[in-house]
Structure prediction request, 209 residues.
Amino acid sequence: MVELKEIADNLIKGQAPKVKELVGEAVKGGMDVKKILSDGLISGMAVVGVKFKSNEFYVPEVLIAARAMHAGMEILEPELAKAGVEPLAKVSIGTVKGDLHDIGKNLVSMMMRGAGFKVDDLGIDVSPEKFIESAKNGSQVLCLSALLTTTMPSMKGVVDELKKAGLGNVKTMIGGAPVTQNYADEIGSDGYAPDAASAVDKAKELLGV
Ligand code: B1M
Prediction:
């Protein structure tokens, strides 16, 4: 029988083919798919997040671990759907209008998926209208990324438009190298996260999940 710790350990080491194989074996062996997700893949990704926060892991290690997570999810996703397992919550993420940087945004997206969120990745150069549309389509948190000081004001645009659209119940979080907690406070965003692992914690905190 597959040990869930073995799945987590291989995910942390970024062994994508092994993770895929082990998840496949666990599913075939009749293990609870929710348990495979939470105690195998998500718990491995949580360790990756801790190591990233403490500078034990850098961007390449996180990307490799995320690839292993994807490999496991390829097998697990259809099984989760069959079993009717719901994601933690639905969030949208995008790099704001005028900004084409996506490496950090992609990391946040991967960590969120790794933590059990359903993530709608809107891509780069995302207009406020597109963010609002995703909120109307059920996203409970909008995660905004900006790497340029010149595109930070687009974040305020999204926060303002969301309120104007009467969607004040939908949370916003911001991040990216030039962004700070002070800036989040200034534009009325609900949260700020300095890195991808903290983004997961902040989203959970905002939603109480
Ligand atoms: Co650009 N660039 N760039 N660039 N680029 C910076 C950002 C810059 C600081 C370089 C410099 O001058 N020293 C500078 C910005 C200056 C400023 O405004 N303060 C800059 C500039 C000026 C430009 C151009 C204008 C250059 C030009 O054309 N003259 C141009 C702008 C294009 C545009 O966007 N319209 C440009 C272009 C590019 C490339 C296309 C060449 C490339 C981007 C490729 C890509 O993303 N696919 C690029 C790159 C790679 C960089 C640097 C070198 C690296 C950025 C990066 O990926 N970091 C960067 C200099 C630097 O930071 N050293 C620079 C790694 C990434 C993991 O970190 O994105 O901070 P980061 O994400 C972190 C956190 O910030 C946080 O979590 C992530 C993971 O922990 N986070 C979030 C990010 N988003 C979040 C969202 C959240 C929460 C947390 O939601 C809630």
The chain has a mean pLDDT of 94. The chain has two domains: 4-83, 90-207.
